[in-house]
Design goal:
Structural class: mainly alpha
Radius of gyration: 21 Å
Number of helices: 3
Number of strands: 0
Strand content: under 5%
Number of domains: 1
Distance between the termini: 26 Å
Shape: rod-shaped
Length: about 100
Amino acid sequence: MSKVLKMNTWTKITKLVLPSALPLIFTGLRLSLGVGWMVLIAAEMLAQNPGLGKFVWDEFQNGSSSSLAKIMVAVFTIGIIGFFLDRLMFALQSMFTFSDKR
């Protein structure tokens, strides 16, 4: 199409290539954000850095009767934060991409 319309390289990139690639780019960003969040929690568990991962690991090692409830609250908190990170990235995606869904 760009050859038929005799577009220059810059116009071809900004009008054809980038708009068609942005949804796939944002999908990759959303997936990598989720994986990055999981790796962050796992790294906190292994390295004993302060955070939710260390809290879960300490409560698991504690083994008291209230530990399971604290672990469940932490797991739900991790999930909620991950959900909101995904929704934030989706909002950015909808700002920068055009969707023909109505």
